[in-house]
């Protein structure tokens, strides 16, 4: 069965960077695009970007351009999302989600807290 | 950028029909997907391509899309349907995926 397992919660100081991982299993990793979506406490879903695990190409939300980097490691079927220059507004649960017809499988979420 | 507008909340009695709208400029020309999110859980896809249901989603869930409004309809609402619901489209002009602000469905 398809599973997306994300790394654990993180606490970071303002200005630091965070890197969240998402390990995929149960399907051919390179056959499906992967998205990252975040959700601030009590807020809605915000799309962050997409990576093609096959070639590594990416596309990011305009709002996050320059601060977000998505990469993948095909040897371990893992995608990564790194967000730099963290600010308090980046405190959120970060999800990876596989794109089948749309976002059909989601990771369990990773809480990133930005606090001094 | 493309904006999707949802009502913040919808309330319905058990056994009745809930309708959650998602407004956007000429949204009828786009494919709309709907997600259900319960507290502390990841979102779950309930409708894709306007009106298709993934396997495992009850037939009580249906969708439509025309003009400037897409609608998620939940028939014979149950207590377990209480959740936040989000619509989502792909905006070709910006190559961005866009979510609506979400609607909290309360079962009275």
Question: What does this entry look like structurally?
Answer:
The complex is a heterodimer of chains A (116) and B (108). With 116 residues, chain A is mainly β. Chain A is 0% helix and 52% strand. Chain B is built from no helices and 9 strands. Chain B has strands at 9-12, 18-23, 33-37, 44-47, 61-66, 69-74, 83-91, 96-99, 103-107. Chain B has 108 residues and is an all-beta fold. Chains A and B meet through strand 5 and strand 10 of A and strand 3, strand 7 and strand 8 of B.
Helix content of chain A: under 10%
Alpha-carbon distance between the two ends of chain B: 36 Å
Cα radius of gyration of chain A in angstroms: 13 Å
Order of helices and strands of chain A: EEEEEEEEEEE
The structure class of chain B reads mainly beta
**Uncertain runs of chain B with pLDDT below 50, 5 residues or more?**
none
List the helices and strands of chain B in order. Answer: EEEEEEEEE
Assembly annotation: heterodimer
Let me know the average pLDDT of chain B: 97
Compute the separation of the termini of chain A in Å.
40 Å
Helix content bin of chain B: under 10%
- % residues in beta strands of chain B: over 45%
Q: The biggest beta sheet of chain A, please?
A: 7 strands, mixed
Q: Tell me the strand percentage band of chain A.
A: over 45%
Structural class of chain A: mainly beta
Short note summarizing the structure:
Chain A is built from no helices and eleven strands. Chain A is mainly beta and 116 residues long.
Key structural traits:
heterodimer, A: 116 residues, mainly beta, 7-stranded mixed beta sheet, 52% strand, globular, B: 108 residues, 3-stranded antiparallel beta sheet
Q: Strands, helices and their partners?
A:
The complex is a heterodimer of chains A (116) and B (108).
Chain A: E1 3-6, E2 10-12, E3 18-25, E4 34-39, E5 45-51, E6 58-60, E7 68-73, E8 78-83, E9 92-99, E10 103-106, E11 110-114
Parallel strand pairs in A: 2-11
Antiparallel strand pairs in A: 1-3, 3-8, 4-5, 4-9, 5-6, 7-8, 9-10, 9-11
Chain B: E1 9-12, E2 18-23, E3 33-37, E4 44-47, E5 61-66, E6 69-74, E7 83-91, E8 96-99, E9 103-107
Parallel strand pairs in B: 1-9
Antiparallel strand pairs in B: 2-6, 3-4, 3-7, 5-6, 7-8, 7-9
